Amino acid sequence: MLESLITSKTRLRLLIKFFVNSQNHSHLRGLADEFGESTNAIRKELNNLTGAGILIKHSDKNKIEYQANIRHPFYTNIRDIIRKYLGLDMLLEQILERMGEVEQVVLTGDIARGSDTGTIDVLVTGANLNDDYINYLTNRLEQLIERKVVFTLATGRISSGGLILFDREAGI
Predict the structure, then answer these.
(1) Which InterPro entries match (predicted)?
(2) Per-residue model confidence as pLDDT tens digits over 48-67
(3) 71 and 113 in one domain?
(4) Inter-residue contact 108 to 135 (CB < 8 Å)
(5) Is residue 96 domain-shared with residue 133, that is, in the same domain?
(6) What CATH number is attached to the domain comprising 130?
């Protein structure tokens, strides 16, 4: 659906890269390698997004790094649209609905790094998690968001290693 609004596949991939996780940053050549596209196509979109103030750039040694401009007035709107496009809002809602005493929901893998490979790796931590519900939830989510979902359940809290979508203790 978002593809009909944002017709440039490169622009959409860049928005996913930088807005799924505001900590993501990259440089032109790295993006070209990751996307398998020419540096000219990537440069054009980076210039457009930087010119609009949606992305910011800064020098790191001899490379120019880009990342989302979290001070842009539309930052949260764009982030929410991208997360909705990826199905992360439905994913979180479904997990919290009947999973049990969820402490954290953390995205790991490619999606946390801003790469939409079609697979979403999710770590759910908490006590007394509903193991039976996870199989049903996996199938339901895969149908709803049209992506493969891989769940990992754990009992202890994690402090790093992914994008935290929910954290009961931190109030996120």
Answers:
(1) WH_DNA-bd_sf
(2) 999 999 999 998 788 899 99
(3) no
(4) no
(5) yes
(6) 3.30.460
**This model's pTM is above 0.90:** no
What distances in angstroms separate CA 104 from CA 1, 53, 100, one per listed residue? Answer: 29, 33, 11
DSSP state of 85: H
Q: pLDDT tens, 101-135?
A: 899 999 998 888 888 888 999 999 988 888 888 88
The bridge status of strand 119-127 relative to strand 55-60 is: unpaired
In a 3-state reduction of DSSP, which class is residue 23?
A: coil
* Cβ proximity of 145 and 86 under 8 Å: yes
Tokens for 166? 């929910």
Please name the residues in contact with 87: beta carbons below 8 A apart, sequence gap of 6 or more: 120, 141, 144, 145, 146, 147
First to last CA, the chain: 28
- Asked if 72 contacts 54 with a C-beta cutoff of 8 angstroms, the reply is yes
Say how many CA atoms lie within 13 Å of 5 toward its Cβ: 8
Show the domain range for 24: 2-77
In a domain, 12, yes or no: yes
Residues 6 or more apart in contact with residue 136 via CB below 8 angstroms: none
Mark whether 49 and 100 lie in a shared domain: no
